[in-house]
Each structure stands twice: as structure tokens, then as C-alpha cells.
Amino acid sequence: MNILVVRTDKLGDFITALPTFYVLKQHNPQNKIIACVAPLNRALAQSCDFIDEVIVDDGRSFWGLVAKLKEAKIDASITLFSNTRMALAQFFARIPKRIAPATKIAQIFYNKRVVQRRSEVKMAEFEYNLELTKALFSDINLEYKKPLLEFGDAKNIYDDFCKMYQITKDVVAFHVGFGGSSDANWNLDEYETLIREVIKVGKYQVVLTFGPDEKALYEEMQKRLFDVNAVFYLSLEGLVYFAKLVSNFRLFISTSTGTYHIASLVGIPTMTFFADNLFASARRWKSVGDEKLQKHFGLPSDKEKKEALLEEVKRALAEL
Q1: According to the model, what pLDDT value does residue 181 have?
Q2: Strand bridging mode 205-210 / 171-175
Q3: Which of 71, 102, 194, 207 lies 20 to 30 Å from 158, alpha-carbon distance?
Q4: pTM > 0.85: yes or no
Q5: Which pLDDT score is estimated for 119?
């Protein structure tokens, strides 16, 4: 059976879909699992041994997308997050069974609609994604391995990184950017306070990571922390390399953005900052890794409460 799973939005959203791919493959290894993803997530999808084929939707030619879907000879599709373009493409590709949440006007183009009401946040995003598989296989086992993604050459990449930057201690990483994908974050002054707290302890090597479009932020943090022993890493080698590197870190600290989801995906402890509201909370956006390795903080909008939380986080970092 050829099964298409669609998640064509941002990095973190795509990672919340990975358990869905995994359980579908485990349910019957003879199933061919096909991922439809945004260009950003192509390489990461291709690195997963439970995904057999990757279709990239670059948002350009609609009929080109329809042709790709037809060529894949898909028997059933599960669209985890829908839009009208994707719904119509599957309709015109004549996929026999088309499953999606019963939301938005696009739902009329699917022939199996599942009421979920994700805005009520009765479970996490990845759990809602998993639930949709029951519309295809009522007896499917929704358990998945953790960490979900492992790499045989990750240690070699980390060792080379340590040699390049003369790192001799376990790494605590900070990712201070968020690319507009988070509803809350510390400002740079506050991050600098937290970073200096870890450096003061002297037990770990601090590494600051930056995405390829964060060069200005990379340069700003170098100016701010010119007087301390920190490594500033501008990631230009792609998501898979980044995932391999991060999988060897001791702790990854960031807001709720795609890099947090990568860190949790590959099984390392995370300390993550969320907006203090239900829709953007850890309850909805906790990642797919072991929950015992995830430490979540909701950032309040109230100034005094936020200052108190900053002191709480400083104490937690001092005790690492």
C-alpha cells in the first residue's frame, strides 16, 4: 500500500509529523511511506529510514504537484495540516482515500474527515497527528521509539567540531534566534545574562548556534560576548549535519522553534521557553522526544513575573 503523509509547513511542524510516518511503517513494513514536504525539510525527510520516498512541494506549479502525486500511485493519503492547494492537488490526482482534519474550507476535497478541534489543545500537536492514522488503520500501535532519529556518523562529526573549536568539555548550547516561528522569547540582554551564568559555573563549554539567515544575530552576540570563552557557530551545512552535531550536546536551550524540535528528535535534554498561553504552550508544542528530557518554561508577559522567572532559570543553570 502506498501511503502519502502531507506536512508542508515549517521545520518544527514537520518534526511533529515524524512519529506518524514511523508508526505507519511499523504497522506494515510492506507499506510504502511517501512524505510530501516543503523544500526546507527534504534532506531531513530523506534521512529517515521509515520514509521511503519524498515529494517536495515548492509552492510553484500546481499541476506539476498533481503530476508528482499521480506518478507516486498513492492508495491513501493522510494530510496532517491542510490548505486548499494541497487538498485540490490530491483531489485532481484522484487519490482513492484522502484523510484530513475536518477544518477549513479545504476539508470538502477530502473523503474522510476527522473532527479534532486542535484549538482546544487536549493533546500535543504530534499526538493529534498520530491520531489521524487511526482513520486508516483502526488497530495501529501509536508507540514509537525515542530518540526517533539516530545517525551512525554523528560522533565523528562532533569530534571534528570539538577539534576545530578546541572544545574539551561537554557542550551546553544556546539558540537565541527563532525565525519568527515562536510566540515568546527572551531578549538578547536576558539571554546574555543566562549565557554568562553557565560560563561562570565553568563546567561546560557554551556554544551559540545560529541558522544560515541569522548572520546579523551571530555578529551581534559575538560583540556582546567578546570577553568570554564561547563558541559561535553559524550553521551552513544543512539540517541533517546540524541534527548530527546537536545529538552529542549535553543540553540545548532555546525558545520553542525548529531547532528545539531537532534537539528533542535526536534525544538530547532541552530547556525551552514557550508563550504563556494555551495555544502556544508546551502542552501543545512539546516535542517528540522523551518528555523526561524536556524542561519547559512559560514566559509571562507581566514584567515582574518575567524577571522572577529569569532568576529561576539562572538558578537552574547554576545547578547544572
Answers
A1: 56
A2: parallel
A3: 194
A4: yes
A5: 84
